[in-house]
Amino acid sequence: MGALYKQNDCEEHKKMIAFLDHLGKNTRTSFTKLGRGTFFLLQTLSGILSVLIRPRLLFNQMYSVGVLSFLIITISGLFVGMVLGLQGYYILSDFGAEETLGVMVAASLVRELGPVVAALLFAGRAGSALTAEIGLMKATEQLSGMEMMAVDPIKRIITPRFLAGLLSMPLLAGLFSAIGIIGGQMVGAGLLGVDEGAYWSQMQANLDFQDDIINGVIKSIVFGFVASWIALFEGYDAIPTSEGVSRATTRTVVNSAFSILGLDFILTALMFGDN
Amino acid sequence: MDNSVLPQNSLISVKNLSFSRGNKKIFDDISLEFERGKITAIMGPSGTGKTTLLKLIGGQLFPEQGTISVDGNNVHRLRRSELYNLRKRMGMLFQSGALLTGMSVFDNVAFPLREHTHLPESMIRTLVLMKLQAVGLRGARDLMPNELSGGMARRIALARAIALDPMMIMYDEPFTGQDPISKGALVQLIKSLNNILKLTSIIVSHDVLETAAIADYIYVISEGKVVGQGRPEDIEQSESDWVQQFMTGAADGPVHFHYPAKDYVDDLLSTGKRYG
Amino acid sequence: MQHTSTQDTLVGLFVASGIVGLFFLAMQVSNLGSFTAHDSYTITARFENSGGLKVKSPVSSAGVKIGRVSAISFDTKTYQSVVQLNIDSQYNTLPEDTTASVFTAGLLGEQYVSLEAGGSDELLQDGGQIEITQSAIILEKAIGQFLFKSASEKK
Predict the structure, then answer these.
(1) What is the predicted pLDDT for the residue at B273?
(2) Do C25 and A208 touch (CB under 8 A)?
């Protein structure tokens, strides 16, 4: 009996050690990856000057990053605004406060939903495409080939895409919010009979340029920075096979979503905490 | 650099190179010389790190031990800008061609010129057409890389590799996966480019026939060591069983057909052990 | 590369619409439009209690919005609340004996400053002070007073 227990004990120990070993290795690889990612980011940032000298590179990327996300952002913005108008009306009318519908729709869009949802859509649409593009370039030796042609692939390929993401994000988030507010007005004032004047005037009276609009724009710039960084790094760091690239694409979407939502909490606490 | 030790005519010399990936030793203290203006081939079975060697010469990987010098420069001691300047004089043909998928054939060949020179567009056009003519694909200038066959993509990549008139070209498995006609075309092209442009060529390959036809000197590498070297005729006459097996492509020999395993009959009769 | 000009147009459209969106947010949605459009002048009012008044709370007269609260501070000598009011300069004809009160819009609404013009010929200048003020009504206090009063009446 005793011997059996001992053996069981031993097995447990082994499992425990294996588990800890696994955990330790995993933690270590995550830190290594974070380190690589930071180094990659610094390299990317160091290429900004060379991109500014050749704005054409940036311009081409604004097309694939910004313009191609335009449709999904505007349509989603419209629907989100319309839903907010509808839901907000039902709740506010219980308190006889339909007049403040504009405030509710605009504040939730400008402060939260605009930057966050636009960034999530951006990560899904443009981010995954960036990862796949860069990963494929790596898998087909294009990045390596560029290096052998004495062209730095980070400066030539990565930095323009990073800047394009950084610049597009606030524009996309602004569009999302603006169209959402109009969508909310269409439902609230157009369908449900909230006074249109009250919708706008309450909004203007309660939303502050500095506190709401500028903070929203800052949020979206931060999200654009992080989403572009993750997308490009996952592509650059992908295992250069088709399976590796498809895994990297998935990681881009998942990691971007986590980072955006986590950062949103921190930024919200910092920006709106003292109100 | 200590130039006096180098043989006078050698453009690239690899000395006592060791490199490993994980626990696997890919190169174990090997030394190679590549003569100026000649075609030198590195041959060996798949997975012997032939591509790795090219990346080491190009400065993309760092050796654990040993030195590689190209035209008198120790590749791994150069500063980044110096390395980039050296690379402008090195051409490399990747196995896949590595054409940039986002741009046309013309723009691909023009890419190194546009990145590294400030030539006017009209002159770039002339140069690109000349390079494309040299590989026989001037008519394909408006195609996109995904519209090219494998052989064409490699020839375009070759045109791009010679765009900056390099002193040397490294070919990574140029014949793999090509149909006989493309193979023939590439063999011709490599030979004639080497003669006309006075290039130094390094071919990494396991296609015995094609490589032996054009190489001036061959190194045969296996398990991190040089197992045979010499002119193609010498290699074919080699006394080493291993080299003979490789050159004739026999299924069994010093390299066994079977992966090491325990006795076949024993294995079949045993009840088997469950894993995991 | 042959699609460059259409591509340029689309990028241009994208950037322009993004900027229009942000501009719309700034001018139409937030208070920026109503803030910067006019010059304003500042007057102060001292309250015994300014209640839930906040910076940027509206200032209105006869129900029309004429300005905003720009600062609220506590005077350590008089123990009063000093409220600075930013009044739109087109409403520069407030008499010197104007009264300021802190009211609440609706039962649960936000608090605002209401100015009620007096009869004096002298006008309030920039930096002037409103002498007559009525503090915010604190609900708990009011209810307490009411109960106290009715209790004492019963006796």
Answers:
(1) 60
(2) no
